Amino acid sequence: MLIAGAGLIVLTTYPYLATGIAYRDRDNGLSYILFLMGVAVWNGLFAAQALDPRPIVKGFFFSIATLGAVLAGLGWLLFASTASSTPFLDRRRLVYRVVALLAGIDITLAITTPTHSLYWTVTATPSVSLAFTDIVPNVGYWLHTVFLTALFGAGATLFGRAWQNGTDVAYTRLYTLAGFTTAAAILGSSVLLSGTTSIAPLAAGSLTTIGWIQAQQKRYLRLPRPYRWLNNLLR
User: Signal peptide position in this chain (predicted)?
Assistant: First the structure.
């Protein structure tokens, strides 16, 4: 079920990307595109673990899915901090530089973890019964979890402040709830399941969906014909 859900999110990338491109000059459109691409990679490579029973292949897909997760977290924070409805982020440039530096370090270490095992160790025994890779988490894995949880929690907090101020209430409320849900899903899945079986990629997909619905309701673009029926259902 998780694999099917992740695959569905990847399939929705096209209309969502069309939304982002049309929305790029408004507010935080470019941030939405980065967020969307991160979520797509996260879900796509998360689901790809089921394609091959070999631990080394599953571990490779898991590493790239981690890259997508970090890009999604970075995109989400940029999306939240550049929205017109959220309050201005103090020392924004400094925050962006620090977060970008940490994201770069996190991605580099996660992808190269087979050479140093600072993040995790993949269990060597292949199993056709396990759809996802089986890992033994190390200290870097927990630091990655804290960093990713903080990114989604910070973005949700910004929308929460906007919700408290009564700004664009319908969407700031949805972003706040879905953002904190995603942060909780990341933390909970990492602690209880070592991140291999996780609802976090699907939860992040709900945030891109809210952005798409918001753009449709505000009539920022005309949908490609095959997707107009879905827009009609949302009205």
Answer: none
Number of domains in the chain: 1
Can you say whether residue 194 is alpha, beta or left, with left for phi > 0 and alpha for psi between -120 and 50 degrees?
Answer: left
For residue 167, the SS3 value is coil
The alpha carbon dihedral of 55, 114, 111, 94 has a sign of: positive
Mean pLDDT by 10 residues, the chain (235 residues): 68 75 75 91 88 84 92 95 87 92 95 89 66 86 95 96 87 94 93 77 90 73 45 47
CATH number at residue 100: 1.20.1070
Q: Can you tell me the distance from the alpha carbon of 122 to that of 130, in angstroms, rounded to the nearest whole number?
A: 13
Closest CA to 76 of 152, 169, 177, 162: 152
Nearest to 195 by CA among 149, 146, 134: 134
Contact 152, 183 (CB under 8 A): yes
The rounded Cα 208 to chain-centroid distance in angstroms is 8
Query: Are 133 and 58 a contacting pair, CB within 8 Å?
Result: yes
3-state secondary structure of 187: helix
Give the pLDDT of residue 186.
94
Alpha helices per DSSP H over 25-83: 29-48, 55-81
Question: 């970008």: which residue's tokens?
Answer: 100
Q: What is the tally of helices (H) and strands (E) in the chain?
A: 10, 2
Q: Which residues of 166-178 are buried (b: 16+ CB within 10 A; e: fewer)?
A: ebbeebbebbbbb
* Domain range for 45: 2-234
| 199 and 185 Cβ atoms separated by less than 8 Å | yes
93 Cβ contact list (under 8 Å, min separation 6): none
